[in-house]
Amino acid sequence: CTDSIMDDINRDRNHPENVPAKFLLTEVITSTAFNVTGGDFSLYASVYIEHETGIFGQMYNADIRNGEPNVATTYNNAWNNAYANIKTLKIAIDKLENDPFEQGNNVSLGIAKVLLAYNGAILTDLFGDVPFVQAGEINPDNTPKYMQPKIDKQEEVYKEVFQLLDDAVILFDKKDEGSSGAIGRNDYIYGGDAKIWKKAAYALKARYMLHVLDRSADKDADMQTILTCVDNSFASAKDELKFAVYNGSSQLNPYAGFTMSRDAMGASKSLVDKMIALNDPRAKCSFMQCTDPRNYTFEQITDPAKIETAPNGEPVQTQFKYSYSMPSLAASAPTQLMSYHELMFIKAEVLARKGQNDDAYITLKSAIEAAFANLQNSIKATIDYCDFTGDADPAVDLSKTVADAYHTALKAAFDTDPLRMVMLQKYLSFFGSSGESVEAYNDYRRLKGEGKEDYIDLKNPLNVKEKFPLRYGYGQSDVSANQEVKKAFGNGQYVYTEPVWWAGGTR
Amino acid sequence: IVISQSDGLPVVGATVVVKGSTSGTITDIDGKFSLNVSESAKTLVVSFIGMKKQEVGIKKGQMKITLLPDERSLDEVVVTAMGISREKKALGYAVQDINSDLLNQASNADLAGSLQGKVAGVQITPSSGMPGASSQIMIRGARSFTGDNSPLYVIDGLPVNSTYDESTLDGVSGADFSNRAIDIDPNDIESIDILKGQAASALYGIRASNGVILITTKSGRGLAKGKPQITYSTSVSFDKISRYPELQTMYAQGSKGVYDPTSSMSWGPKISDLPNDANYGGNVANKYNNFNPSGTQGMYYVPQRAAAGLNPWVKPQAYNNVKEFFRTGVTWNNSLNVAQATEKANYSFSLGNSDQSGIIPSTGMKRYNAKGTVEVKLNSNWTTGFSANYVNTSIDKLPTANDGILATVFPAPPSYDLAGIPAHIANNPYVQNNYRGGSFEAAYWMLDNVSFDEQTSRFYGNAYANYKTKFHTDNHTLNVKYQLGTDAYTTDFENVWGYGSKGSSKNGQIENYGWKSVMLNSLLTVNYDWKINSDWSFNALLGNEFIQNNRLRYYEYGDSFNFPGWNHIQNATSKNNEMRDLTNRTVGFFGSASASYRNMLYLTVTGRNDYVSNMPTGNRSFFYPSVSAGFVLTELESLKNDVVNFAKIRASYAEVGQAGDYFNNYYYTPSYGSGFYMITPLMFPINGVNGFKPYYVVFDPKLKPQNTQSYEFGFDLNFLDNRIGLSYTFSRQNVKDQIFEVPLAGSTGAQSMLTNGGRIHTNAHEITLSANPVRMKNFNWDFAFNWSKVDNYVDALADGVESIFLGGFATPQVRAGIGDKFPVIYGNSYMRNEKGELIVDDKGLPQIGEAKVIGSVSPDFRLGFNTSFRVYKFTLSAVLDWKQGGHMYGGTEGLLDFYGVSKRSGDREGSFIVPGVKENGQPNDIVISGPKGYQSYYETINDIHEAAVYETSFVKLRELALSYQVLNKPWLNISVNAFARNILLWTAMPDFDPESSQGNTNMSGAFERFSLPATSSYGLGLTVKF
To answer: Which residues span the domain enclosing A350?
Structure first.
C-alpha cells in the first residue's frame, strides 16, 4: 500500500477542502447575526442594562451578580463564535485578494471587510483589549499560525476597524467580477447590492466613531465626520443592516429560541417604571403574562400597572411568575446589525452634543418613529408565534400617529436637557428582540465615562456596590489556553473595576 | 489415540498405564500409542498434566480417549493472540479465562453483565439496567482521555466491532446508544480468554492497546464422537428497579408552604391541609366552588383533573408515583444448539433469542442469533471450515437527563396522582396535561409520543483453510492458515419527539439515522514448531493481516409535523440531512518467536508493523515490539516440594499504539444554537443557500500515533495438590503522545486541534486467589477472589491545557485534569476557610465557593468473589462484587432534595445549624428552621455541586444461582436452575444504585441525572441435553 493509495482511502468524501468565498460569507453573515449580535452577548447585556430582569438560571445569576459576570465560561460560546467568524473572514479575504479564481469580486471583498470590522469592534467594545491582528490567522496547512494570539490594545483594534470600513467603502464602488461569480443571493442581507452595503459601511463608521468620541483628539471634526457618514448612509428603515430570514418555525430569532428553551427573563421593573413615567405607549403593548405554563399560553397586559415586574438585582428565582416582555418570543423578528433608528439616534446625539437642538429634535422624532415601527414588528411576530388566552385579542399600535403624540408630549422634557432625552429614548428603543442591548450597554458605559450615567438611571441596587459589570470577561477557551489572556483575566474581578479604554479605562 | 477435549488436538506425551500394573507407554506426537496388554487387564489409566486423569475400559483395535481439561491446574491450555493455544504456564504475562458455565450461570443475556465480578483488572461500568444499555469495559484503566478505551473483541479468530457507533456526547440529553458487544449471545460462548496486558495483545498491533477479549464459541469440537448432541435451554427472569428512592409522603405540591398546582416543587402545605387552602381548598369559599364550600368539604381542586375532564374535586392523599410508574420487566432467553463431532468433521448450529421488556413501559430489547460453525478435516494435511453468525437486535429506549422521561417521575409531588390523571387534556391527545410547567414533558405522555429506537442486522464470520505438515519428521511442524472474514452490519436509529412535545421544536421532531459498516479481514499465519531436543523447543510465527473498514452514516432531521398522529419524516415541514462515507485500511505484518527450555524457562519476542490509512502522509507506519519471559521455579529440582506444586515468575515489556482519525482540514455546514437552546433554532439551508466554515477541529498534519509502553511482573503459585492457586500481577503503563482534540484558545478561530499531547500512567495490581477446598464425588466447593487496584493518573496535557472535558454541563462536568486520577468531577464547591470549615452567609446558609475538583470517579479497589458449591446434584454458585471508593455526581439525588420530594427533605419541621463559621470567623449559630428554612437550605445547596457528589462504594450480590441436575443419563440430561442478579446489599449512595449513570463514553459511571435505573433480576431456567 503506497502513500498515494492510502491518501485516496483516507480522502474525506464528505466535506470540501476548498469552498468559494461567497459561501463562507453566507455563513459569517448568519453567524454574526445569530451568534454575535443576537446571541449571548445581547442576552447578558439586556440584563445588565435592565432591558430585562434575569429571573432564572444563568440570567438570574447575572442579575444578582452571582458569578456569571466575572467567570470565564459565561461568554465563552459567543467569544469563540466571534473568533470563528474572524478566522473565516480572514480566509475569505485572502481568497478574494489572492486566489485567481476569486480575484475581482470586489463587493464580496468589501462585505468581508465590513463583517471583519463588525466582529472586531463588538469584541473590543465588550472585552476591551483583545486578540485581533493575530487572531484566526492560519498556516498553509490550515493549522493556526498563532496558538496564543497576542492581545491588541483597543485603540489599535479600532484603527483596524476604521481601515477595514474605509477600504470597504472604496470596494463598494466596484463590482463582483471574479470567475467564482458574484455573491448575489449568498448575501442574505442585501443580495449583493453594493450601493446599500456602502451605506451600511458608513452607518457602522458613524457608530464606531461615536464609541471612541471621548478619546478623540478633535471632537468637533469627528462629530462632523459622523454627521457626514450618517448622511451617506441609510435613507430609511428599508436600507438597514438586518438579518431577516427567521420564519418563526424552523428558523427562530435567537432571543425567542432562548426564551422558549429557558424562560429565564422577566419584565424589568426599572424599564417598565421608566416607560410609565414617560407615559410611553410601549408599556401598554409590550408585556404579557404566562397564563398556563403547562401549555405555554399568554395574555397581553394592556394596563401597565398590572405588569408583574421583576425587581432588578433582587428577583425571586422562579419561572412564570413575572410578566414576559412580548419581544422575548418574537420568533420571526429580524436581528438588527445596524438599524435605521440607531442611525437616527446617532445623528440626534451628535446634533444635541453640538447644541443644534432643533435639528436634534427633528432627528429624534424620526428615530422614535422608526424604533416604534421596529418594536411593533417584533410584537406582531410574538402575536403570530404564541398562543394567547384572555378576553381581548393581543394587539399593538405603535404607528406614526402614536409615535407623534408621544414625542410631542416629550418636547418640554427634551428642551430642558436634549442630550438626556436623546440618550434615554435611544436606550428605550434598543429594548426588544433585535439584539440591540449591546449598543445600549455601550452607550451607558460611554455616558458613565463622562459622568452622565444618570441619563439612564439603572436601578439594580448592586450597581452602587461596585457590582455593575463595566466590561465582559474574556472567554474560557483563551483564559485556559492563551497565557497572555489568562494573565489579563486574573480572577475575573476586573470586570467590576476597569472600564474599557473608550470609556475612560486603560485596557 | 488420545485427544484433548478443549481444542480437539492430539495430546502428545500422555501417560497410558494398565491399571494395577507397571506396564505402560506415552503417546507420540500424533497422540497415538500402542500397547500390548495381558488378557486380564481391563482398564487403562490415561493422564496428562493439565488434564483430568481418566480410566477407560480396554478394547481391542483402535481406541479413542478424550481427556478433559483440569480447570484446577495451571497447566491448562489458553488461547493467546492470533488464536494460538499455549499452555498457561508458558506465558510471560497474565491472562484470565472464563468458561461457559461460569459465564452463564445466571443466564444474563448481556455479555458485559455476565463478566462482572469475574475477572481481575477489568472494570465493567454498566450505564443502567435497561435492556440493551451500553456498558463500558476497560482493562487496566484508560489509555485515552476522550477516545476509545474498550478492548478489541476477537470471535473465533475474527476481530469484530464491539464499540458504539453513536456517542452520547456530553451525556446530558437524549438516549443511550448501546455498543455492538450487545450482539453477542453469551449462551453460544464456549470460553473467553482475556488478554489484559499489552505484551499479551501486541500481535494485534495498533488496535490492541486496550487489551483483547478472545471469544471461542461452541463448535462441536471435543464432543464425544458419534451422534449429534442437542441442547435446549430456556430461562425467564423478572426484572425490577434495584432501588427505589425514599420519598416523603407528607407535603403537597407548592412552595414556601403554599399550594401551587403547577409548581415543580413539593414544598407546599401538608397534604392533609389541602382542603383548607385559600385558593383551591374545598373547605374554603373560593371561585372553584362558586364561593360555596358546602359540597366540597374535605376536598381540594386539582386543575389538571379539570383539564382532563375528570371531577376536579378530590380528597387529598399521598401517591407513590415512582413505584406506580415502573413495571416488572420480563426477559425470555432461549437457545437451541445442535453439535456433532465425527472422525472427519465437527459442527455446531445454534439459534438463540432474547426477548426483554424493560421496567419502564415501552422499553425493551429483542435479539435473535443464528450461528453455524463447521470444521472438516480433508486429509492429514488439510483442514477447512467456517463460522457464520447472523444477529438481529432491536432496542426500544427512552431519553435521560434533562429531556429524560424520569425528569417528571422522580420529582412528581406526592400529592399529585401522576398515574391516575391523564397526561393529556380531554379530547386532545396532543396537548399535554402535566403537573408542572416549563419545557418538561409529562412522563406518561412520553410513553405514547416519544420513542428512541435502534435496530441492527449483522453478519459476521469467517472461512479458513489450514495446511499442516510434519515434513515426515517427529520434531518439525509447519502450520499455514489463511482466513478471510467479514463483519457487516447496518444499524438504524429513529428518535421521535411526537406532535405536541415541549422540549423539542414546536410540533415535534424526528431524526432518522444509521450506519452501514462493512469490515473485511484477511489473515495469513505461518506457524512453525521445532522440538530441537528434549530440553529445547522453538516456535516461530509469521503473519500478514489486511483490514478494510467501509463505513457510511446517513442522517435526516425533520421538525414541525404538519398534523398530529403521523410522526414521520414525510410529515415534517422542515428537513435537513447529511451523509458521511468513511473508509480506512490497516495492513499489518507480524512475527513472533518463542523458545522454551525444559518446561521451565519460556521466552517470547513479538513484533508487528502496521500501515494505517487514517494517519497523515509520512506518519502511517509503526512498529510495535514485545518481549515476555516465564520461569517455572518448581521445575528446579531443589525447589520441588509437596506444598507448593507450582511456582512461576513472569515479566514482560511491550509497546502498542493507537492511531487517530486524521483528515485533511475541511469546511462544513454548521447549525446554530448553544447549550442555552433545547432546540436547533437555526439551520441551513436558508433561502436555498448553504453556508460553509472551517471545521472547528483542526487536524495536525504532524500527528503521530500515541504510544503505550507497558511493563508487567507477576507470579503464579499453586499449593496443596493444586487446590489453591494464587496469582499476582503488577503492571505499569506509560502512555505518551496521546491523541486527542486539544482545546485551543478561541482566538485562533478554532475550538480544538487533533494532535499529540498529554501523558497518562497506570499502576495496576491484580490478585487472583482460587481454591478448591473440597473435591469429592458428591461434594465440591471452590471459590475465587479477583482483586484489583487500578490507579490511572493524568501526568500532562498539551501546553496551556489544564483539563479536558469528557461530559456533563459547563459545571458540573466530568473531566481529565493534570495530576488528578482519571477522571474527576469538577464543579462548584462549598465556600470554605483555610481550615476547611464551611463559611455561611448572614442567613446561616452555605455559600458557593470556587469551581474545582469535587470528586474522583475511580474506585480505590474492586474485589470480585465467586464460588460454586456442589452437593450431590445441587450446585449453588454466587458472585459477589465489592467496589470501594470513587464518586459520582448524583444529580437526581440532589434534585429530589431541591424539589422537596425526598424523605430527607420531608423532615422539615425541626431546626438545625449548618456546621461551619460565619463571615466574621465566629462559629455559626444561625438556626435554620421550619419548612421555609429547609426549602431555602436545599435551594442554596442545589447550586453547590459538591453537595450532590456521592461516594459510590457498593457491595452487590451480582449473581446467585442454584442448579439441580434432574436427570443425567447418556441419552438425556436435564437440569433446572433458579437465579438472581444484581441484588444490591449495600451502597454509600443514599437513594440510588450507583451503577446507573449517563454516557457511553469515558464519562460513564461519573454523572447521574435522571438516568434510567439499574435493575435486579430473579429467574428460572431449564436446560435439556440429548
So the answer is: 21-503
Q: Which of A124-133, B167-176, B681-690, B969-978 has the highest mean pLDDT?
A: A124-133
Three-state DSSP at A54 gives strand
Beta-carbon separation of B560 and A250 below 8 A: yes
Q: How many domains does chain A have?
A: 1
**What pLDDT does residue B90 have?**
85
Q: Give the model's pLDDT for residue B72.
A: 45
Mutate one of A6, A384, A476, A484 to test the B interface: name it (highest B CB count within 10 A): A6
**The C-alpha cell that represents B176 in the structure block:** 443511550
Q: What is the pLDDT of residues B8-64, one digit of tens each?
A: 667 766 777 777 666 777 777 677 777 777 777 777 778 776 566 777 777 777 777
User: What angle do helix axes A106-127 and A21-31 make, rounded to 10 degrees?
Assistant: 30
Q: Which of A165, A256, A249 is nearest to A211 (CA)?
A: A165
| Residue A43 · residue A54 · CB < 8 Å | no
Q: Name chain B contacts of A90, Cβ cutoff 8 Å.
A: 749
pTM of the model: 0.87
The CA distance from B311 to the nearest CA of chain A, in Å, is 20
Name the residue facing B748 among A43, A147, A258 (closest C-beta): A147
CB contact under 8 A, B672 and A147: no
Q: Which residues of A touch B433 (CB under 8 A)?
A: 294
Nearest one of B875, B877, B876, B873 to B968, comparing CA atoms:
B873
Chain A residue closest to B617 (CA)? A3
Determine the distance from the C-alpha atom of residue B205 to the mean position of all C-alpha atoms in its chain, rounded to a whole number: 23
Residues of B in contact with A120 (CB under 8 A): none
Q: What is the ipTM score, two decimals?
A: 0.95
> What are the strands, taking DSSP E only, across B414-474?
424-425, 428-432, 450-469
Task: Indicate which of B747, B826, B852 best probes the interface with A, i.e. most A CBs within 10 Å of its own CB.
Answer: B747
- Residue A48 included in any domain: yes
Superfamily of domain B1-69: Carboxypeptidase-like, regulatory domain (2.60.40.1120)
The DSSP secondary-structure symbol of B360 reads: S
The answer to whether B748 and A146 are in contact (CB under 8 A) is yes
Per the CB < 8 A criterion, the answer to whether A2 and B619 are in contact is no
DSSP state of B451: E
Domain contains A15? no
CATH number, position A328:
1.25.40.390
Q: pLDDT for B761-813, tens place per residue? A: 999 999 999 999 888 878 999 999 999 999 999 999 987 788 889 999 888 99
Q: Residue A43 falls within a domain, yes or no?
A: yes
Helix (H, G, I), strand (E, B) or coil at B910: coil
pLDDT tens-digit series, residues A268-309: 999 999 999 999 999 999 999 998 877 788 999 999 999 999
The closest of A33, A17, A149, A76 to B681, measured between CA atoms, is A33
For residue B882, count other CB atoms closer than 10 A to its CB: 18
| CATH architecture entry for B101-241+327-404+441-662+700-823+858-886+952-1025 | Beta Barrel (2.40)
Domain residue spans of chain B? 1-69, 101-241+327-404+441-662+700-823+858-886+952-1025, 254-319
Q: Which ranges constitute the DSSP H helices of B54-160?
A: 100-104, 111-115
With an 8 Å Cβ cutoff, are A477 and B678 in contact? Answer: no
b/e burial code for range B490-525 (CB count within 10 A of at least 16 → b): ebbbbbbbbbbbbbbbbbbbbbbbbbebbbebbbeb
User: pLDDT for A180-207, tens place per residue?
Assistant: 999 999 999 999 999 999 999 999 999 9
**CB within 8 Å: A27 and B669:** yes
C-alpha dihedral, A119 to A121 to A124 to A127, nearest 10°? -60
The HSE-up count of residue B484 (CA atoms within 13 Å, CB side) is 1
